[in-house]
Amino acid sequence: MPTRRRGEGLLNNTEEIAALYREFSQFPSLSSASVGPEITTQYGGKYCNIYTEWSQRDLERAENVKFCRQYLIFHDGQSIVYSSPSGNCTEIKGELLSRDSPSGAQKAVLRKTSNSKDKEKQFLEVWEKNRKVKSIDLSALEKHGQVYEDDQFGCLAWSHSETHLLYVAEKKRPKAESFFKPKAPELNVDEELGKTEQREKAIKGEQFVFHEDWGETLVAKSVPVLCVLDIESSNVSVLEGVPEYISPGQAFWTPGDTGVVFAGWWHEPFRLGLRHCTNRRSALFYVDLTGGRCELLSDDTKAIWSPHLSPDQCRIVYLENMAFGPHQQCSRLCMYDWYTKLASTVVEIVPRQSQGEFTGIYNTALPECCWASDSRRVVLDTAQRSRQELIVVDTLSGSVCSLTKGSPLGSWTLLTIDRDLMVAKFSTPSCPPRLMVAFLPPADKEAEVNWVCLEESSPVQEITWNIYALQPPPELDNPHYAGLDFEAILLRPTQAPEKTKFPLVVTPHGGPHSVFTVSWMLYPAVLCRMGFAVLLVNYRGSLGFGQDSVASLPGNVGTQDVKDVHFCVEQVLQKEPLDPQRVALLGGSHGGFLSCHLIGQYPNIYKACVARNPVVNMASMVGSTDIPDWCLAEAGLPYDPSALPDPRQWTEMLLHSPMQYVDKVQTPVLLMLGEEDRRVPPKQGLEYYHALKARGIPTRLDYCSALYMGLPLFQIQKLQLEQNAVTKLLMGFSLREHIQLVLEAPHWVTTEFSSGCWFLPLEPSVARGSPIDAVYQELSEFPSVTYARVGAGFAGCGGNKCFPLYTEWCQPDLGSCRQLRFSHQHVLHHDGRAVVSVTPVGMPAEIRDQLLVQVSPTGRFKAVLTHHLERGQKQEVLKVWSSSGRVKSVNLTELDEHGRVYTDGQFGCLAWSSSETQILYVAERKRPKVQTLFFQDRSSQEGEKPSETTKGEQFVYYDNWGEMLNDNSVPVLCVLDVETKEISVPGGIPEHLSPGQALWSPNDKGVVFVGWWHEPFRLGLNACSNRRSALFLLELPGGSCELLSSDCQAVSSPRLSPDETHLLYLEGPVFGPHRQCLKLQMLNWQTKLTHTVVDVVRTATDGFWGIYSGALPLLCWAMDSHRVLLSTPQRSRKELLVVDTKLGSVKCITAGTPEGCWTLLGIQQDLLVVNCSSPSCPPVLKVGVLPPAGSEQELQWTRAVETSALPDLEWKILTVQPPVTEEGIPYADLAFEALLLRPRGSRQGGRGFPLIVSPHGGPHAIFEACWRPTMACLCRLGFAVLMVNYRGSLGFGQASIESLISRVGIQDVEDTQLAMELALQSEPLDPNRIALLGGSHGGFICCHLIGRFPKTYKACAVRSPVINMATLLGASDIPDWRYTSLGLPYCFERIPSEEDLVAMLLHSPIIHAAKVCTPLLLCVGAKDRRVSPYQALEYYRVLQARGIPVRLLWYPEGNHTLSGVQTEADFFMNCAQWIMQHLSVETATGGQQASEKAELSVPF
Q1: By C-alpha distance, which of 1297, 1402, 1384, 1290 is closest to 1344?
Q2: Which residues neighbour 912 within 8 Å (Cβ) at sequence distance 6 or greater?
C-alpha cells in the first residue's frame, strides 16, 4: 500500500492514489443477516447458525460482488458462549431476494438469469435442506411483469403455514405493436388451433404510451400488484381488491393467513419520486383473501411505511410522518392492535433533544426483523445527532432505551433480531464494518447488553477523528427556532506534516434532510490517508437533531445551511492545524448545491470545488425532477399538485439558488453529472457549466449516461463511474494540486383514453371505407427526390444533345420501418433551347449504407462514403468509382486519423479538388483512447508495446452542437490523397473555431470553409442561422488561416463561381431570431473585397420578399458566372429566383405556377433540376434550360417523373389582415397568410367540414405550399386543415419577423385564432368541430389556444411543445431563444433574473392551464435536445391533477421532430385517432402532425 511518511505532505501520484483506493475499496460492507433455527446438542447446549450477506467492490470486474458467510453461535439463551465462522465466503450470483420460512426449514429465492439472447428471466426457487424443490419461471407464466426487488415496494413473505409466498410485481400490460406491423403468414387449421391459446391480441399503436413511474432508482416501477404463489401447485394469482388509486408494497400475511396487510401509496393525480421521500401520502391496508374486501387500518391523510407484525401476531408497528413537507424528518412509531382494531402512537415526534436524551426516530425503514421475542419491545437503529445508535422501544409504555450509548463511539446498524439474538453492524470513520452479536437483555435491563464481535476489522491507525459541536452566533440564529446547534465530523491524518498544515476538504451532505454519522465512509477515508483533513458538516436541518432542526431549514436553504457550513469551517480552522489557504469543497446533490453557494458567497476562501449532480437553479428544476415538491417546500412555499406556476414562487426559488452568485465565482469547479439522473436532472449542472465557461472560470464536466443518483447521499451506483470519480475527486481534477500548488502556479487541480379508432361519418367518396393506416400508407409512400446530378453531354439523334441525369430518392418503407433510398437514371434530350424529352434508363436501384456522394468536376469519378458493421464496430469506407468500376476503397476507420465523418448538412462536405486527386471532408477530431483509472495494462508483461491511452478520461464531457448534431463536437478538415490513400488533417485552424462546409479554393491552393465560434460554449446550430461564424481560407500546405468575411456576423453556404473568380455566401446577424431574412454576399477572389448582392428586405419591393434559405444549393451558379439560382419562401409559396450578381436584380421564374413549392436541386451546364409539389400534389421532378440573361421568364419546364395531383383535394391561400386595435403599434399593418387544404366539393347535409388548425413551429419558420403526406391524409379522412403562417413567419419580410419579438404567446396566438375565424367565415367548415395540431412552437401556440379559448377547440394534439419557458432554461440547446423571443438581449454570460423568470412564465401556456378543458394528446421524444420532454410532462401533471383528459406518448429514441419511419407513423396514427375519438364523443375534431420534412429544420 502506498504510504505517506511524516513530513511528506500529500500523496500526489495517480497510480498511488488508485492503489490506495483499491485497497480501501476491498473492505466489504454488511448488507443483511438472518438467524437459523436453534439446535440443542446431545449435551444440552444450544447453538444456531447466522447467515450474513456482504458486498464488495471488484474493480477488475467493475461491479459490486455479493457474497455470503456463515457463523456458528453457541449460547445459553442469555449470552454468547462461543462463536466461530463456518467455512469460507461464497459468491452469490443472480439472487434478487431471499427469505427463510418461519420454521427455518425452507428458503425462497428470487433469481435473475439471462438466456443466450440476453433476455432477462426471473425464477422463484424453493430450497429445502440440501436440495432445490421448486424452480418456477415467473416470466413464462406471464401473470405479471418484473418482480419488485427494491426495498421500497418489494417483499418476499412466507405464509405462516409455509404453503404460499407473497411478493410484489409490476402489473401485466397488454402487448402493443406498431400500426404497420406486417402480418404473419396464415397458418393452417391445426396450427391455428394449436396457437390460439398462446396468442395474445396485441393493441396497435400503444407501444409508446407514457407510463408514470416512481422516480429515481424506481424507474421501472409503475403499477405494482400483490402476487401469491401456491408452492404445491406452482400457480400464481394476482390479488384483487386493492383500490385502483393505490400502489401496494411492503406486504405480509395476516394472522391465520386469511389476508394480506400492506402499505399503499396514493398515485393520483400522478406519481412523485418515492426514494428517500418518507412524506408521500400512504396508509396501512388489509385485503381479505376470502371476500376481496380492502380495509383501511391507519390514518389516510398521513405517510406511513415499514409495517411489521409481532411474533405473537397481535400487533403491527409502523412509522408515520405528515404528508408533504420535508422529504425526511422525525417520525412517529405507531402501533396497530390486530384484535382491538385500534391504532396508537408509541413514540412521538421529538422537537428537540433535552439534556443529552433521545432525539427522535429518523428511519427510512425498520429492520426486517425488529420485534423482541416478548412481542412487546421493538429494536431499531436511528440517527442520534452524529451517531447511529441502537434503541429498544417498549410499545406498551413508550419508553426508549439506548443499547449502544455506553459502547465505543461509532455507528450501529441492526441487521436482524431473532429470539432476542441481535445481529448488528458497527463501524467508525477509521474502522471498517464489524459484525457484532448480542442477546437482548430482559426489559429494564437493556443497558447490560454484552456485544461480541464475530468479524473483526482493524482500524486504520493513520486516521484520527472527532465530533465538533457548534452553536451558531446570535447573528446566525434562526428567530423561529432559536438556540439550535449542529455538529461536524472532522477526519485528519494522525501524523501532522512537519513544515505545512493539512489542506482541508469540506463536505456538506445532501438531502438536505440527511445526516453524516460517525461510520466508515470510503471517500473521506481515502482522502484522509492521502493527507487531507475532511470536514463532514451536519448543518441545521440535518436528521438526528430533533424536528425543530429539520423544520428550521425550509425557507432558508441557500442561507442558513450555507452560513452553518462556512461558520463551521472558520471554527475548525482556528482550532486545528489546518491550512486556511488550501480549503476545497466536495458535495453531491444538495451538498453540491451548498458547495456552489459557498464558492459564490465566499469566493476567496475555497480554492477548488467538486460538485456531483448539484442543484443550481431550483426554478428551472421544478418541471424536470421527480420531486417538484422539494423545490417549493425547501424554498418555504406550499406545494399543490394542481397549482399553476406563480411568478412570485419562481422568483423565490431563483433567489435561493446558487446561480444567483455565479458572477462572483472564482474557484475552479469540477462537475460530475449522470444523464439518467431523475432527481437532479443533468441540465442543472450543464446550466452551471455554461455559466462558468462564459465567465472564464476553470471548469470541467464529467458526464455519463449511466450515472444515477442513489442512496441518501446519492452515491454513484455504477462502479466503474465511481472508480473514475474517486480519483477525480481526490486528484485528477487537481483538487489536490490546485490547493497544494496555489502559491506556485494557478494550475488546474392519466386519464388515458382507449386508442380504438372512431371514424367520423365521412363520405364514401372521401373515406372510401379505408382505415386510417391504409390512407397513411398510401399517401406517405410517394417518394421524394433528394439529390440530382447532370453528367457530361453527348451527341444524340436528330442533332439533339443528350445529358445523363442521376437522381436519388427516399421513400418510407412502413413494413421494414426504415427509410428506403434508391437511385434512378434518365437521359435528357436537349435541342439547344429546351429539354424536349426525358427518357428513363432502366429500373430504380436500391441504395444501401451510403452516407455521402459527390461526382468529380469532370464527371469521370464518383466518391461515395459508405458504412457497414464489422465485428460489431462501425466501419466508414470511402470508395472512388469510375465508368469501369471501383478504382479505390479506403477504410477510414482503420486508418484511425480522425473520428466519425460528418454527414450532416450543417458541417458535412465531400469535395473533389479541381485536379481530381484529392477529396476534402469533415470529421470529428481524433480523441485519445481512454481507460479506467484501475485498468491494469499487462501488454508490457507479455512483450507487447503498451497502448497509448489516457486514464480516467472516459467520462469527460465534450460540448456538442445540440439537436440533430449530438455527435458533433470538434470537427476537423481532412484531405484524402486518392492515389496514395493517405489522410492528412491540416493544421492552422484557430482553436476557437469549428470548421465545416468546406470547398477547395481556386487552383487547389487552399481550402475555404465556414468557421463557427465555439467559445465559451456551443449553442444549438441546427436550424439556427444566427450563430457567429465567418469565412476563412486555409492555405495548403503552409497552414496560415485568413479571415475572408466579417467576424461579427453569421455566414453559411459558400459557393465558388464556375470561373473561380467570385465566392457567394449567405450572411445574417449574430443572435436575435434564429431564422430571418439574409443577405446574399459576394467575395471577389482577386481583390478579396466583399459586397452585398441582395440586402435584407424589410417589406416587399417589386414583389420580392427577401432570402430565407437555410442553405444555397451546392450547384447554384449559371455557366456565365454572374447569375445565381436559389429557392426561398416568398410569403406562403417557395419560389425559384434568378439573381444577377452584377446588377443585384432578382427575378422569380415560378410565380403563378400551380405548384406552390419549387426546390432547386442543382444547375449544371445551365440545365436546372427541380423538385416541385403542392399541398394536393406529391413531388414532381422537372428539368429545364436556363435562358440567356433577361429572358429567364421564357424558361420551359419538362417533367422527368410524372406524378398526378390528388383529384379529391383542393387548396388555397387565405390572406389575413389583422385589425388595428390601437394607433401607434408598430407592425400593425402587416398581413399574414394561411394555407387551407380540404376535400374537394361540399359536405352533404349542409354540415361543414371539421377543421384542424395547425400553426407551424419555429416560431420563425413557414408552412410552404408543398406536399405534406400527413396533411393530405387528414384531408382524405374528411378534415379541412388550416396551416397558419402567423406574423413572424419567414417569407414575409424582416419586419414581419421582428414583429413577433417580445410578443410570443400573444401575437402568434391571436393571429392563429384570427385565421381560424376567417376560414370559418369564407369556407364550408363546422364551427363546432375544431381541433388543434402543432409541433414545438406550434405546440406552444396550441396549448395557449386551449387555455385562452377553452370552448372553441374540442381536441388538441401536440409534439414537443414549449410549455413553460422558465423551466426550459438550462434544458435546451438554444437558451438564447428564451431571451430573444421576449425582446431581451442575450449574451453567453447572462443568467435569468427575477424579472426574466416572471416574463417567461407570463408568456407561457402553463399560465392558462386552469382554464383548459380540451382533451390533449402530448407526444415527446426522450432524446429531444431542443425542447426537453419534461416540458410536456410538467403540463401533463398539471392537467391530470385537474381531471382534464390528457395522454402522453413517450418515444425513447425520439428527437425533437420525432423523425424516423416508425415514430412518424405512430405519431400520426395516434393523433388522428385521438382527434376522431373526441370528435365522435364531443362532436368536434382535432389532430395532425406539424412536423413534416419542410419543418424538420425549424428550432420549434
Answers
A1: 1402
A2: 854, 855, 856, 857, 861, 863, 918, 919, 920, 1000
List the grid coordinates of 1031.
Answer: 469565412
| Per-residue pLDDT, 115 | 74
Cβ neighbourhood burial of 1093 (10 Å; 0-12, 13-18, 19+): buried
Beta bridge partners of 866: 850, 877
CA–CA separation, 1382 and 963 (whole Å): 22
Beta bridge partners of 246: 266
Strands of 1336-1415, DSSP E: 1355-1359
Q: For position 123, what pLDDT does the model report?
A: 96
Residues 703 and 722: their CA atoms lie apart, in Å, by: 12
- Strand segments (E) across 1176-1248: 1177-1185, 1197-1201, 1209-1216, 1232-1239
Specify whether the CB–CB gap between 1382 and 1412 falls below 8 A.
no
Residue 1444 corresponds to which amino acid? Answer: I
**pLDDT for res 1245:** 62
Q: Which residues pair with 80 in a beta bridge?
A: 75
Q: Is 637 exposed, middle or buried (0-12, 13-18, 19+ CB in 10 A)?
A: buried
- What's CA 1379's distance to the chain center, in Å? 23
CB 1195 within 8 A of CB 1149: yes
Predicted pLDDT of residue 591: 97
Evaluate whether 876 touches 866 at the Cβ level (below 8 Å). yes
Instruction: Check: CB of residue 496 under 8 Å from CB of residue 502.
Output: yes
Looking at residue 729, what DSSP letter applies?
Answer: I
Q: How far apart are CA 485 and CA 564, in angstroms?
A: 10
Asked if 108 contacts 125 with a C-beta cutoff of 8 angstroms, the reply is yes
Helices (H) and strands (E) in the chain, counts: 25, 76
Of 825, 826, 822, 819, nearest to 809 by C-alpha is 822
**Residue 1476 near residue 778 (C-beta atoms within 8 A):** no
pLDDT in the model for residue 200: 64
Q: Find residue 842's DSSP bridge partners.
A: none
Q: In sequence order, which residues have a C-beta less than 8 Å from that of residue 901 and are 6 or more positions away? A: 851, 852, 865, 876, 892, 908, 921, 922, 923, 924, 974
Rounded CA separation 1334/1341 (Å): 8
Contacts of 548 (CB under 8 A, 6+ apart): 351, 352, 481, 484
Low-confidence ranges of the chain (pLDDT < 70): 1-8, 116-118, 182-200, 705-770, 935-948, 1222-1224, 1244-1245, 1480-1500
Q: Angle, to 10 degrees, between the axis of helix 1337-1348 and the axis of helix 1307-1322? A: 70
pLDDT digits (tens, 9 = 90+) for 625-684: 999 999 999 999 999 998 888 899 999 999 999 999 999 999 999 999 998 999 999 999
Give, for 566, the enclosing helix (H) or strand (E).
helix 560-575
Q: What pLDDT does 902 receive? A: 98
* Residue 465, SS3 per DSSP: strand
1022 contacts 1029 by C-beta, under 8 angstroms: no
* CA 542/CA 353 separation, integer angstroms: 13
Name the residue type at position 1480.
S
Residue 786, Cα to own-chain centre: how many angstroms? 32
Q: How far is CA 1089 from the centre of its chain?
A: 47
The phi and psi torsions of 1477 (rounded to 5 degrees) equal: -60, -45
Cα dist from 1278 to 760, 1250, 1267, whole Å: 8, 7, 18
User: What would the grid cell of residue 1433 be?
Assistant: 410532462
Closest CA to 968 of 1006, 1011, 937, 922: 922
- Quickly tell me which residue has 423565490 as its cell: 652
The C-alpha angle with vertex 1058 and arms to 1054 and 1060, in degrees rounded to 5, equals 70
User: Does the N-terminal peptide bond of residue 269 adopt cis geometry, omega within 30 degrees of 0?
Assistant: yes
